[in-house]
Please model this.
Amino acid sequence: MPFEVIFSQKDARIQLNISRSDAVENTWLFERLSERKTHIESQFGGMLNWRLLPERKSCQVVCAKAFDGGNKELWPDIISWMIDGMTRLEKAIRPSLQELAVELKKSGLITEGGDE
Model:
């Protein structure tokens, strides 16, 4: 399951993109992670944007920061923010993903790898 860093003209984002081949698995994983939202956000050290995207097959857990992407003087600070944020996001979510991968295999829903 990919952790992603996105740098645009308007903002920078770090996110977990739950985008397995099966929408049911994605929703199942997202709902189980959402049940741990308070713990995950506590471990992360801030609030996250939890996006269940019914119109798409994926779901996301996102932290974004608005900034002027055209201002190159800001880039070093934004890059530092993204590195720090991604490190914290992965550390906060990865243990839950590992536990949920085992649960997903046992659930009978799984259609792909599952070794998140």
